Amino acid sequence: MARVKKDSNDYVIRVSPSLAEVDAVQWNALLAQQPLPSPFMRHEYLSAMHKSKSATPATGWTARILTLHDGDELLGGCALYLKDHSYGEYVFDWAWANAYEQHGLAYYPKAIIAVPFTPVPGTRLVARDADARSLLIQGAIAWCRQEKISSLHLLFGAPDDIATAAETGMMLRHTVQFHWTNEGWPTFDAFLASLAQEKRKKIRQERRKVADAGVAFRHARGNAITPADWDFFYSCYERTYYEHGNAPYLTRDFFRRMAQDMPDNWLLFVAERSGQPLATSLIAIDEQAGAKVAYGRYWGAIERVDCLHFEACYYQPLQWCVENGFDRFEGGAQGEHKMARALMPTRTSSAHWLAEPAFADAVERFLEKEGRGIDNYLEHLDERSPFRKPGPHS
Fold first, then answer.
1. Which of 2, 20, 22, 109 has a 20 to 30 Å separation from 176 between CA atoms?
2. d(CA 176, CA 179)
3. Parallel, antiparallel, or unpaired: how do β-strands 266-273 and 293-301 relate?
4. Structure confidence by residue, pLDDT tens digits, 348-381
5. Neighbour-count burial of 364, counting CB atoms closer than 10 A to its CB (0-12 exposed, 13-18 middle, 19+ buried)
6. Cα(25)–Cα(164) distance, integer angstroms
7. How far apart are CA 144 and CA 133, in angstroms?
8. pLDDT tens digits, residue range 112-129?
9. Maximal C-alpha separation, the chain
10. Cβ(349)–Cβ(161) below 8 Å
11. Torsion angles phi and psi, residue 193, rounded to 5
C-alpha cells in the first residue's frame, strides 16, 4: 500500500494479488463510465481468466491488481501482470528482451497493463477522471521501480489511456489492426454493392464455394448457445492451436464461465453439413457503450473446406452485423488480407517505460523509426481501399 497526493487530496494505491479483493460492482461501475469500456475489462471476464487457470503464474501471468482509493471509494484500477515471457500479448518485444540478455541484464519479469490473450483496443485504466488515470500510471511506474522490474507496458489502450501514459513520459508504439465500420447499409447485398467490382465478385465466389460444398450456417447468442455447442466450439478451438504446434491459451473452464457469467456477450456461428457440425466462429458482442460492437475472437474446424474460414470469420459476422444494426466489427490482431473483406486499417497504440536509461534511449530511437514505417504503411494501405471510387463508371 502506498499513499499518493493530488493537490490537497490524499489517496491510497493498493497492489493486490487477486481481482477477488476488488469489489466487482465498483469496478464495473467505473468501467461503464469510460469512453471505450469493452466487455474484456469487466470484472467477470478478468476473473474468469484467473479462476479458469488460463492466466495464472503457472502460465506466466502473475496478477498484481493496482487500485486507487479515497477511503472506501474505488477511484481507479488496472489489471497489471508480471510476465516471464512475451506470449499472448500481440505487441512484440522479443528483440528488446534479447538485447537485455546480450548485455547481461534481466528483461523478465516485466510488467504489463493488459487483458490476457485479448488484443482488443479499449480502456485499460479504469478511472473516475483524468487525475485518477494519471495517478494509476504514476503508481504503476513507482511500484515497478520499487520492485526493480525492468519495464512497464500498457497494451492496446484507449486514447485517454495512451494520452495519460505519454504525459507521464512513457514511449508510444503503434501497430495496425483491421476494423469494419457499418455505413448504414440496409442489407448485405447493399454493403457488397459499395465495394469495387473485383472485390465484390471475389466475395461472392468465395461464399458460393462454401455453399456448393453443402455447408450451411446457424448462429446462437447468449443462453441459446447450448452446452453441446460450447463443447464442439472448444474442440475446434483446441484443434486449431494444436495444428499450429501450440497448446490453447484458454481452458474449457474459461468458456464455461463466460457462458455462466457473461452469456449476452457471445455469439456463436456453427457451420454444418447434413446437420453435422464441422466448424465454429465465436464472436464477442457489446451494446452497452452507446455503440454496438462485435469482436472477431476464435475459430476452428474439424474439416477443411475451401474458403470456410472467410465465411465463418468474416462474411457470416458481417452479414449479422448489417442485419442487427451493429456499428463496428473488429477483426482481431494483424491480417492485411482482411482489407479484401472491407475491414479497413486502424492504428492501435501501446505505451512503454523501461527502467534502464540507456535501453530506454535505444528503444525510443527504434520506436521513432518504426513509427515512420507505420505511417508509410497506413498511407500505402489507404491507396488500396476495396470500396468503389466515386465517379460515373463506379
1. 109
2. 10
3. unpaired
4. 999 999 999 999 999 999 999 999 999 999 999 9
5. middle
6. 25
7. 17
8. 999 999 999 999 999 999
9. 70
10. no
11. -65, -20
